[in-house]
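User: Structure please.
Assistant: Input sequence and predicted structure:
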Amino acid sequence: MIGALITGAASGIGRAVAVELARAGTAVAIGTFDGDPHDPQETLRAVESVGGQGFVVRADVRDSDELAQASNEAAERFGGLTAVVANAGVLQRQPLADLPDALWHRLLDIDLTGVMRTVRAGTAVMRDGGAVVCVSSISGGVVGSAGHTPYAASKAGVLGFVRSSALELAPQGIRINAVLPGVIASPQSRDAVNSAGEEGLARSAASIPLGRVGEPDDVAAVVCFLLSSRARYITGQSLVVDGGLTVAWPT
């Protein structure tokens, strides 16, 4: 692989993907947005610490022009763009009965339409084939999530987008797949207001067959496999990374 664009790469799964790709020799464009509470320069330092190359680029998934510019810049700097990871997403807890239209539209704009914008921009500059991974979730992708209907609807929609895009992109030699993380210890999941929080993560471990919550590196390893030539005959698929949570019968 030559170069990759990763959205939401300032922290969590996005940062882990950037480092894992860098370790494998892929240059990375570290996508971030104005107002991100996490420092993308920390991701860049982590990339450089494993001998990788990269740069930070503005890639707000709400802005088609910005994503196009980020994709073009990555392709120019790296001599081509061969991988895209549509990872950026947000989560906000809100009961359906109190859900305002504006919040519904905001979350779908980022978590679903933002994936489309990222993939559309990134694949437009792929000249010799490539691979794309979209980050969905078991929330919506496999199970329901009370209090998170916009997020779950978006993550379910990502799977339909991936399947349909696979058919359109295959003639260009571009593969696209989705990963569905389970309970992952990330800045987002540690938010006790909108997600599980530290106590919720600790409780979740007891329900996971492998006995622990996941780490961003667990997801990054799967993302990098799907982007690699080892997955050259896989497209339009969805791979769950949840420690067995969604196949366990409650006891």
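The chain has a mean pLDDT of 94.
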